[in-house]
Design goal:
The complex is a heterodimer of chains A (462) and B (168). With 462 residues, chain A is mostly helical. Chain A contains 20 helices and no strands. The chains are: A mainly alpha (462), B mainly alpha (168). At the A-B interface, helix 1, helix 4, helix 5, helix 6 and helix 8 of A face helix 4 and helix 6 of B.
Chain lengths: 462, 168
């Protein structure tokens, strides 16, 4: 509860800071300090220290797992503010409001990681989505940003409608919004035919959640929106928000529908197959690094879906590790991308000579996304595939995933090749020493998690 | 056949016909008017379900505020059948197929619904939960947490509206 209330209050604080001062770096510093407080209080709640005692009537439960994910999300956002905070200031004039919206999104993240009721899932997802529509269109004079925002808003509204319809049907079947109220109905139906309203409701809920995590065949909005949005906000959308919705997805299906996973696995395996295939194959043909990263985020979503396929301890640990590994690496790559003048692969030519620190850290992030050992991405992918293997069925899907990971190496290494083995003068905007230090620390965390993943995972248990 | 069944039949036919009218009619103004009729028919259904509050809110918010906004936009932009952009045949066909697929999936999921006679629609608290007094009590007791948290949602939407709408 600490995280939800404090992040909402911090959002209001940011709005007032915009009224009191026009100095954008002061606003940024307020945001960074606020985020540190938020992170600290969230960790304190993990140790049993609660600021507020609110009777949630069982609609939320704050367990270790959700709190750990909150901490990861807040820590990633902190690194994101430190790396790209200056670029947020350059997007438009309403700097304080952008920070406020980001805090509201974090409030939504904290809700969807600890909901017990479908009602709160809906509100949480909406609190995440609506500020994102606005951040996508933040660059008002850019026509592409406007188009992306409108597209995202229209498609997102439809998927919200589908989600509401699903929740309505589930409520009709069970008479309750609670995940606990649904679970006995599902288990009771193991031998009897499944309740028809429940199944159609679940189908609609699955579709809308798959839309939000941009799993194929509901991924069509992703490339345009990620490409059109200001790069700083794409970085946030593609990482922290996406991982949070995956946690919500897992919580929803784990809490209520774990028992009937036999009925689900065929649908999920088709979704994984399509997502991995479309994401990886289309990414190969992209000329712009930003658009390549959009498709790569679809491909990574395919891997994260393995957690839903597996439904076991490996899956739960894996999604934590995956979201940390994927978020940190992608935030790093976007931070470097924002500094580039030219977003195409050619724009990176010769970066290894002109900016060795940027090139070296970028290489580590790309290796992590590709899943090369000694980086966090390797263990993240390993846990996901282990979850699927432990599950015991449909072994071909694992083989397919490994093949897709091999394809992904091609387009990630194209960037590395441009940086080191091609001559050119990669133009960057001014790089401050502080930016470099944060990048080095971030790369250090990525490698540390790749060597000792238990550092993070052991937090789940005590 | 009692009076509520007859009313249900009339309202359902009205809702379906006017909903079809929204999609079929060429003139956008007729579409909006049909949509208003649909909302009124659905509000009638709410009253049959003993949910007065929902019925009134549906009329005030949807048929009142949102539809008037729709009409204003359509009239200000002077849209009519002539200026409506023509979609290509292939696009229409694709849309038709996609809609049919969704329809098929839902029909396939619901095709057994009639066979289960014991599957009754859930009735909460004797069916009088829709009365304003009971609804308020539920909202401020059982559902006070979602009610309060939705304030964050509205606040963020308001901030967003200002960010998008204000002149730079």
């Amino acid at each position: 509860m600490n995280a939800i209330i404090i992040s909402a209050i911090l959002g209001v604080v940011m709005m007032y800071s915009g009224v009191l001062t026009k100095n954008t770096s002061a606003i940024r510093n307020v945001a960074i300090v606020g985020l540190i407080v938020l992170l600290g209080l969230n960790m304190a709640e993990g140790c049993g220290y609660q600021l507020f005692h609110i009777n949630t009537k069982g609609m939320m439960s704050f367990e270790k797992y959700g709190l750990l994910f909150n901490s990861i999300a807040f820590a990633s956002t902190l690194i994101y503010f430190l790396l790209s905070g200056r670029d947020i200031e350059k997007v438009g004039v309403y700097v304080a409001e952008y920070f406020a919206l980001i805090f509201f999104i974090l409030c939504g993240v904290a809700i969807v990681t600890s909901f017990n009721s479908l009602l709160l899932l809906f509100i949480g997802i909406e609190i995440i989505s609506i500020p994102l529509y606005i951040l996508t269109g933040a660059d008002k004079r850019n026509l592409k940003s406007n188009e992306a925002s409108l597209k995202y808003f229209l498609m997102g509204s439809f998927s919200t409608g589908i989600m509401l319809m699903g929740i309505t049907l589930i409520f009709g079947a069970t008479g309750s919004f609670m995940l606990k109220g649904i679970a006995p109905l599902v288990t009771g139906a193991a031998d009897a035919p499944l309740n028809i309203w429940l199944v159609s409701g679940l189908l609609l809920l699955f579709i809308s959640m798959a839309f939000k995590v941009s799993a194929a065949p509901f991924h069509f909005w992703t490339p345009d929106v990620y490409d059109g949005a200001p790069s700083v906000f794409t970085s946030f959308m593609a990482t922290i928000v996406k991982a949070a919705i995956f946690v919500a997805f897992l919580r929803l299906f784990d809490g209520a529908y774990g028992e009937m996973k036999g009925a689900w696995q065929s649908i999920i395996s088709i979704t994984i197959l399509l997502t991995l295939f479309i994401g990886n194959i289309t990414a190969v043909f992209q000329q712009s690094v930003k658009r390549m990263l959009a498709y790569s985020s679809i491909a990574q979503a395919g891997f994260m879906l393995f957690a839903l396929f597996g439904f076991n301890e490996f899956a739960k640990e894996g999604i934590i590790l995956y979201s940390a590994a994927y978020s940190l690496a992608t935030i790093g790559i976007f931070a470097i991308l924002i500094k580039m003048k030219d977003y195409t692969f050619e724009g990176f030519n010769g970066l290894g000579k002109s900016q060795p620190v940027l090139a070296a850290t970028n290489t580590i992030f790309l290796l992590s996304l590709a899943g090369i050992p000694l980086t966090a991405g390797f263990f993240a992918k390993y846990y996901m595939l282990a979850a699927a293997i432990k599950n015991g069925t449909q072994f071909w899907l694992v083989i397919f995933a490994v093949l897709c990971a091999a394809v992904s190496v091609y387009y990630y290494f194209r960037v590395i090749q441009s940086m080191y083995f091609k001559t050119g003068n990669a133009e960057t905007s001014t790089i401050t020493p502080a930016f470099k230090y944060v990048l080095i620390v971030l790369a250090g965390i990525v490698i540390l998690l790749g060597v000792f993943p238990q550092l993070l995972l052991s937090q789940m248990y005590f | 056949m009692n009076i509520s069944q007859i009313l249900f039949g009339i309202l359902t036919v009205l809702a379906l016909v006017s909903a079809l009218g929204v999609v079929v009619s060429k003139n956008p103004v007729y579409s909006v008017l049909c949509l208003i009729v649909t909302f009124f028919a659905i509000s009638g259904h709410y009253i049959l379900l003993n949910a007065q509050f929902l019925a009134i809110v549906n009329i005030i918010v949807y048929a009142g505020a949102i539809m008037v906004l729709f009409l204003f936009v359509i009239m200000l932009m002077n849209l009519n059948a002539e200026v409506e952009p023509q979609k290509s045949k292939i696009l229409k066909f694709a849309g038709f197929i996609a809609g049919l697929c969704l329809f098929l999936v839902i029909v396939a999921a619901l095709k057994n619904a009639d066979e289960k006679t014991q599957t009754q629609a859930t009735q909460l608290a004797g069916g009088d939960i829709g009365l304003i007094k009971n609804l308020g009590r539920a909202l401020f007791n059982d559902y006070v947490l979602p009610f309060e948290i939705s304030s964050v949602l509205f606040l963020s939407a308001m901030v967003g509206a200002v960010v998008i709408g204000k002149k730079e």
